[in-house]
Structures are given as structure tokens and as C-alpha cells.
Amino acid sequence: MNTNLFSKAAAAEAFTNASAIGQDRLVRKEVSLGFIRSLLPPMTHIGLTLSPWLEVPTDDVIFGYLVGDTDGLAPARAEDAEAELAQKDQTSLQEGRASVIDWSLKDHYTASDVNRYREINRVVQAMQRGTVPLFAQSALEDWTTKLARDTALRRRKLDNRIEWLIMTALSDGIIGYNDGKIKFSVDYGRPAAQQAGNAANTLGGATAGVVNWSSTTHDPIKFFNDIIDYFDQNYGVRLDRVLTSKKILRTFVNSDKFAQRAGLGSAWHSGVQGPPDPLYLIDGWGPDAAVRVVEQACNIQFIVYDSVYRTRPIGSNTITNNRFFPQDRMLFLPAAESVNEVDDTEIGFAKTLTSPHPEGNWTPGFYEWEDSTKDPWGQDAGTGVKAFPVFPHMDYTHTVTVTTP
Fold first, then answer.
1. Which of 90, 254, 268, 375 has its CA 20 to 30 A from that of 354?
2. Residue 225 and residue 12: Cα distance in Å, rounded?
3. What CATH number is attached to the domain comprising 271?
4. Which range marks the domain in which residue 316 is found?
5. How many domains, in total, are found in the chain?
6. Is the pLDDT of residue 197 over 70?
7. Do 147 and 114 form a contact (C-beta atoms < 8 A)?
8. Neighbours of 9 (CB within 10 A)
């Protein structure tokens, strides 16, 4: 996939003169393909490191599509449906084919927006030998900045949607989607005994998929080793990573088991005799040190993941941070070499399938388009990606909810 990002100046020029015809294409209403090429996945998300891209040639699974919008996340669309306009609700009924669902957004620029830019641009060209008026310079810069800002926001929502898909699947074992127009549910088949909040989940001393670490009586090393041993004995798979939040990792140090590291016997707490607090007795001791002890004892790696996407209702100034992964959840993941022993396919543990789109020159990955063929000669610019995560070995994962202080 092409990874070249466009500059602000190039974006503005492409928007008004993207074809060889020139700026009069607005009058002639020509369509220019390839406003933007494929872009790199975001570096701030980790979903695609757990479920990397896998390019596939076609779409092959039928979904039934039945009205709404999701703020902060790109919406899905049926294969033959028009892309969502930002903050616009649709009431149409669609049905299409997609194992790789088409997620897309677009922005509309009115004829006055485009014509104003073209007029100011002509003023600048006519004054090339003199000083460009301040109003003309600032107007051009504002327009260029607006194009870049809109493009970045569309892309961010797509990135957020891919991350939401992957993390929802890993956390819940199911992706359930319903925005009013499109509705589907995909169950990846995680066993009940390995699902957080399920009554059958009692691994590691959990009760209905919940472990209580709100006091000082928990034993984190025993808990992790019990889970690891279960998967080794029942699946022959080694669990080597745990995805969780910083809040949960901070509870390790509260365990009475770590009081033994102080080596000073008991201590007094509000007049009551009990274990000493190593936080105040050992230099360099703290939550991070306790995490390192557990990692070494269990031969496991903890991945701290507290990323969010932001939403703001229309007409409101209140911004909400929405987590991609629950703060009270732990997710156990299998070692790559263990999965390779039982799966020699290209998918392996997980892949995010992405298929070709005509606006991406029939190449998989992110694509963008522009359209100026509709009266009154306004202009649309959109961004999309056809993608969906696949987890053929969800039974090699384990989730549990943790109660913290």
C-alpha cells in the first residue's frame, strides 16, 4: 500500500485541480479519482499489532443491513450505499455483500466554498509579481487548513473504528453492531469458561468470571500461573501476554504476599498489628516493581492499554472519553509460536482482512475519493476502508473482570 501523505498545499491544489483538465473542471463537472492514496495505520493504536492487515481479493459473506450515526467512530455502509455525511442520519434500507465491511465518511463543500477559493487563488496568480494581499493569503491558508483538518478527522474516525472492532472482539468475544441502518453480530466462539462475567468462568479462583482484588488477600502470581497451566494442559498453548489497564496492575503491590519482601515481620497499622508496607521500607519499591516481579515469576508480559476515542453530542460542549478496552478487564493472549504449531494458515491467531475498493485503484487498504458531478457544483471528499477482523483461535484467549479498590 502507498504510504505517502499529502501536504496541505498539495491537498488544496488537488482539490481544485486534481485532473489534467484544470480548474474549469468544476464547470465541466469532471470526476477526479485518487484524491488521496492509501495511508498508514495509526501509531497510537495497538489493535493492528494484535490483528495485522491481511489483504484479500474479494468480499464473500452476506450481511443483512437494515438509521443513525456514531460520533468519534466511522460508520459502516452497505456495499452499494452512499457514504455517510458527517452528522447526517439516513433512513434507507440496504442489503449488501461484505465479509470486509466498508467503513467510510465524507465531507461536503458547497459551491460557494469552492468558488471562493478559486476566485482568491486567481487573485494570487494575477499578483505573482507583486505583494499578495493579506486577506488573500490568509483565506488560502484557511481553506488549505480546513481541507487538511477534515481529512485528518475522517481518517481518525476510521482508525478508531478499526481499533474498536479489534478490541471489542478481543474483550467480549463478540462484535455486535447496530447503528440503525446496519445491524450484525459476530460471535468468535470463546468458551464460556474463559469469558469475563460468565457463570462458568471459575479459572484461577474467579467467581462467575470475576476476581476480587479490592483487598490485600489476593495472590497474583498464583492466579496467573493457574491460568497459564490450564491452557497448557487443555490446549497445549502457552499464554505469554496479558492486556489490561494501569489501574489493575497497581493492585499487585497491595497483596499481602509482597509484604514478605520487607523482611521485617509485622507492623502496626492504626494500632492493629499486620504486615509491613514495602512501599515505605524498600527503596525503589512500588506498583511497577511488583508488576516486574509477577512478570518474571510467571514468564508473562503485561501490556498496559488505556486508549480512548472522544465523542461530543451535537450542540454540546461536553467531551466524553470512551475506552476501547474496559478498565476492569484482563485479556490473556497466546504466544505466536504456540499458535503456529496448530495453525499454518496465513491468518494464524488473528488478521484484519482488507479488500480492494475501486476508489483505491482496486488495491486493499485505506482509500479516498472526491466528486464534483452534482449541482450546484459543490464538492465531496471522502475517506474509507474495507476491513474486518478475523479471530479463528479465540478459544486460545481468556478474559476476566477484576474488582479493584
1. 90
2. 57
3. 3.30.1930
4. 192-344+394-403
5. 1
6. yes
7. no
8. 12
